[in-house]
Amino acid sequence: MRLQNPAIRISGLHKSYQQLHVLKGVELEVARGSIFALLGSNGAGKTTVVRILATLLKPDDGTASVNGFDVVSQPAQVRESISLTGQFAAVDEILTGRENLIMIAKLRRIGEPRRVADDLLTRFGLADAAGRRVATYSGGMRRRLDIAMSLIGDPPVVFLDEPTTGLDPEARLDVWQMIKKLAEGGTTVLLTTQHLEEAEKLADQIAILHEGTIIVSGTLAELRKLLPPAKVEYVERQPTLEEIFLATVGKDQR
């Protein structure tokens, strides 16, 4: 069933790099104010999807819209509606946390950049470290600052491409909390990840991209129904998202 006024809509999306056909008719819809996890193995095309949605690549065929704007014919409006955070924190280590935020606010011509910076530092639990150079920050603090920078201007849609790459478990939990708060505040989050637990903990909807197409999509509860009922031994055990992923891509290891 098609969503009414989704934050993201993709239909029949194709993309090739010379002889390599990466996307082969991707279909996708993301509800506003939700966390949507796009899963897939290395090379499945997750980053290609994000780059097309962010207007960094043009599709070969098909359509895609973000916040109601077409990514090909209305790229400027799309860029005003989004923020993109990549796999590695894009922060300036020489500057302090506050200076990083003020710089981005000024580049985006946001009024009262110092107030905006201080509000975000408080929101992301970085106020005590605001005057320290980012070179002294932990990995989790850098990632929180990176996400905070991406929210300057209050974009309605945020793309997080492998946001916890290289982080330790404690830092990952910190980032998870930040992502949950984004959605609670009404921001739509499209999350790409290889950490299946990450999608299991965060996502309202999950899709698995495999060999260029979306092979399954739904809530975690709906995906669990794709596997046989849980085996009852001493306790009932539901299949994990990792088992669902491996089964649907033909690598069931149970």
Outline of the structure:
The protein is of the alpha/beta class and 254 residues long. Helices cover 33% and strands 24% of the residues.
Give keywords.
about 250 residues; alpha/beta; Rossmann fold; six-stranded mixed β-sheet; four-stranded antiparallel β-sheet; 9 helices; globular
What does this structure look like?
This protein is an alpha/beta fold. It has one domain (8-248): Rossmann fold (3-Layer(aba) Sandwich). Helix content is 33%, strand content 24%. It is built from 9 helices and 10 strands. It has helices at residues 46-53, 75-81, 97-107, 113-123, 139-150, 169-184, 196-202, 220-224, 241-248, and strands spanning 8-17, 20-30, 35-39, 61-66, 69-70, 82-85, 157-161, 188-193, 205-210, 213-218. The strands form 2 sheets. The protein has a 6-stranded mixed sheet with strand order 6-7-8-3-9-10, sandwiched between helices. A 4-stranded antiparallel sheet has the order 2-1-4-5, covered by helices on one side. Helix 6 links the parallel strand 7 and strand 8 (188-193). Helix 3 packs across helix 4 and helix 5 (139-150) runs parallel beside helix 6 (169-184). The two termini are 32 Å apart. The model has no long low-confidence stretch (mean pLDDT 88).
